[in-house]
Amino acid sequence: MAQSDTDASTPKYLRNKYAIVGVGETSYRRGSQETTRNLATWAINNAIDDAGLTAGDIDGMLSYSGNDSTMSTFVAGDLGIRLNFYMDVHGGGSSTEALIGIAIGVIEAGMCKTVAIFRAMNGYTQVRIGGTGARSAAPIIGDQVHMRAYGWQSAGQNFAPTFMRHMYDYGTTPEQLAHVKVAHSNHASNNPKAYYKNRVTVEDVLNSRLICKPLHLLDCCVETDNATCVIVTTAERAKDMRQHPVLIRSVVGRCSKPRPDMHYQYGPISTVAGHYAKDILWPNAGVGPEEIQATGSYDAFTFTAMLQLEDYGFCKKGEGGDYVSSGIINLGGKRPNNTSGGHLCEAYTHGMNMVIENTRQLRHDVDDYCPVGPDGKRQHTYDYSEGKCRQVRDIEITANLGWANPLTGSAMVLQRS
Q: Is 323 a catalytic residue?
């Protein structure tokens, strides 16, 4: 006998019971000359205003950091918020969706009512992932002792064996992957907030200097200083807030491959965590890849976006190169990816800007270059030529695919209410 969506013995009970009600960010820039504490308060204030809330309405706070953020208690104090629950975790690209799942859990448990989740980072001027910023990253401890012995100091160096193996296994080419950057640059050209707004070609990507084989410079994400925030509460409370609620159908949090400490010892290394996460994501969401109208697949590199789209089932294993080079992921295509420009072009936020983008897409109110009507709302033209529209027409359901590395990932399905 099939379980109903209201059966509390299954995660389906939580489907569409919670919503994202506010999103906010700082400007995306380099050289912020501000502390992560100040950046965090800026982004959270913007999200609170977006939701039509006051600071006193927030009683839960979650954050994640890569050695360069500020604790929730400090930020809450600056905002005049008294917290009933808070948690600060170490983590990067797989954190946003995972913490949204934790927010759902703590609200469901009655520990708080409305949770602000933030990420604040001076990712260009202070702690850079490769350790070359004004402040170096954390001391070499734990798994880093092993990884750096092989020259795996940066993310690109760490992930390159997975990328190269996929090319060997399936014949994937740099030319195919360059289409990811091309698509995301096209999207960013219609985004007033994007750090890089210029459109590029496949030839531009392939002619940019080689960073770490097979990655060229334009296969790699932008580095920026910024903060971002999303606010989660129940769908019932969301009805009384300013924005059209965006419902959460399903969440996967930090699902890992076998041997997550040394995933390359347990093959195939060309398969990533999405292979396992999809078996949680889609059954709990009650939909599959074919129903998804836009994706936010984490693009620290062109390869990371492709690998996840493949392993979450948007195409068959080994066909990711054909998928991303076919036009499907472009605005106007069947299933556009990272319509803000993502990490390759908009900003690097460790994943949250892609959740913010899909939230705004589902509200049908992304900020682009379309004219604003007498009612104060944008009159979207659905003209995706340069400097025009980036709103997906009649969009109702999206997926976010978060990436930490080949062995760990998070994901989420969102729906317009």
A: no
